[in-house]
Amino acid sequence: MEIVEGFGIGVVVILGALLTLFVRRALVTRSGGIIRLSVRVSTMLDGRGWSPGFGRFAGDELRWYRMFSFAIRPKRVLSRKGLAVERRRLPEGQERFSMPADWVILRCTSNHAPVEIAMARSTVTGFLSWLEAAPPGAVSPRMASQDWPAA
């Protein structure tokens, strides 16, 4: 009898965790503007340290949420004002195994700190448009390099 009770409690805990993940995602994605986005959280090893998630555009911010997290708050916030794209490249080496084949990696600076983000090739155009756009009277952030290799 104790084994059955323990098993039942385990099943309830797992179902509760899954329900919490789905509710969290529904709360974050409820207003649209969501893209699949991976952020490199560690540069200790070449080609490693990528964390999958999704980004949400909210005004002048790109809010990044980890895919497998219980947190409702974004893990990282990139402000359009301090964000500039340095270069873009295709996944290399180990990176090809950790992300889909049609993704592009953008090396950016966010308030003078480097950050690497990866997204689908079809999403890059929208991201760059959002980055260049600015409200009337505001200064649009500069793109650091316009001679990117064709991806």
TrEMBL record:
Q: Which InterPro entries match?
A: DUF2550
Membrane-spanning parts: 6-27
Tell me the keywords, alphabetical order: Membrane, Transmembrane, Transmembrane helix
Write the protein's name: DUF2550 family protein
Question: Which species is listed as the source?
Answer: Micromonospora noduli
